Amino acid sequence: MEESLQLSMSVSGQHSSSKSKPNFFPKTLLVPLILFFIFIFFYLENNVYITKPSTVYPYRTRTEKENAHQEQKQPDSSLGTTSATPSAKPHLTACGVPVQSGPMIKVAHHKAYVISSYVEHRLISKTIRTVAIVFRSEEVQYYCLLCCDGRNISAAASFDIHSDHFGYDYGTADITCQVPTTCTTPAFVAITSRMHEGNGSLWNIQSFQPVGNQQPRTENFPYAFTVCISVMYDYMNVLGLVQAMEMFKLLGVQKVAIYKTNCYPDTQKVLDYYVRQGFVEIIPWTVSSYINVSRGWKKSDSPGELHYFGQIAALNDCVYRYMYESQYVALQDLDELILPLKEDNWTTLIPQLEEIYQHHAGFEFENNIFPISIPSDWRPEYTPDLWKNIMGVNVLPHVYSLPNDPNEFNNYKLIVNPRLVFKTTVHGLLHSRGGTVRVDPKISHIYHIKEFSTQGYSETSLIRDTRLWDFANKLIPAVSKVLRQALNIH
What is the pLDDT of residues 339-349, one digit of tens each? Predict the structure, then answer.
């Protein structure tokens, strides 16, 4: 057999070179093989994204352009924090333009950034209101480019910069435009500085944004109470976060919206736990990747271009985001608890306040500071062993507050009916229907547990207040359960 094969090969080699050599690959496998390679090609094209690796050169200093690019990619803090990453839907388009649902969409060629857009149902004409951050000294004629049923429709816009910019270069603004009668459902909008004409180029449109609040509600809200937290950055208080979330639940809160820049890894695990529960919504807050934000409210002490991480824009967005999703919205921080002194929760407190004050827009709750530095009442039953190894501050032992001077302004936070609010700020409402009323602190006030200087206060002037302990029996087991599950503690 071997000899015949060699002979055959030898004979074939004597033929003209135009005659092909024998093919030992079965022809029946050729078609399946071609189909296999076609499948692999399309799979890689649709599922694999090739990212160019960054090259690090020893002893080389990055250029300003490279530093700016690097800052957008990395969290703006240390300690291994996890940053906010906006969710992207790269395949979703409107009128041929990509759709971006996350905040911070740059208006092309201008120092303006769009946060979110909503249908405004409370004015005479149907209007779209866009919450934005703008460079205050820049004069621009804005336009709304609407994508309606696959058609582009332009509308001139007006803008109004909020007064509470605290002297910083950037400020929160409302960009508004009336919806043309030819646009029955304004599903997507883009803010631009050039009117769109016919089928001309959309070179200055980065992306369209979904328009929220399409259908107003007056009843049957999905949530009774929503808490708006702005903003979370460099957050490491893991224990305090869980205590706050569980206290919110005890008070009747059903949703918490957190505008997050970055946080400690264990904090992220806790957030992921509550997101899976459907209790927390995380809004990626990437403002610091585009604007030099301050870490305080006073420009002389906290340099930057925008007040306190863009907190005011986040608060306004939260009001509109939950305007028709929540009956009431609380605007506060994670280290603040609005506690009723006689009622058990907000569910019974708010109707009582509406009856007392004959008021339905917003309620101001006076701030009471419980300094962490003051020696506290450490009781074993309020400090479980499990909590001792968790990073953060246990709120239960802190029962001494500083007295408020009735002759001076005392800060407060709000619970509002969002449908009566047009503009909000950190401490109060800038524009609303009906304004706000200050709640008697004997009915309810804020427990604000924080680092605070006690210089000038005597020990005898401190006020002992153990109201938090009334919630301890329910709070402690709930917090311990979450810590075990979220951090996988056995």
Answer: 999 999 999 99
